[in-house]
Amino acid sequence: MGKNPTDRGKKGTKKSVLVDGDGGPLGAVIDGANVPDCKLLQATIEAIVAERPKPTKAQPQHLCLDKGYDNPTGRKAATAAKYTPHIRRIREEKKSCDRAQGHKPRRWVVERTLGWLSKCRGILVRYDKKDANYLGLIQLACALYWYRRLHRMGHGDAKRVGKTDS
Q: pTM for the whole thing?
């Protein structure tokens, strides 16, 4: 049966992924399953591999987070990284998203990306004992996701420049 879940002896690995608006993974970290989400936020922000443009008053950078980050630690990590945090309150009712007015759902994008990453067998079931190896698999899956996305958009085509067939 295992340990009682109330004593926080939960086994497993928690994946924390930061994605762009379309679901492209920007940074990922792992830790034990018993670590609260808000403690992984700063490490996840620091794990971003793409160069980030500087936020300005005219163009602030928004960070949408779920209720697990509704505490001073989560808000402090987001503002320290110069993001404008959008964190739903713990007892706040979920509002319906009116797509007709241009609102788009935000949280499902992260869940969809985690679902795509979990389709890789080595990530879904953790076979690696070492954390660095498992994190490397997650990062490789993220890179593969970006490669496929760019290839679909036509940026990955090998075009022959300046050559003609004779």
A: 0.75
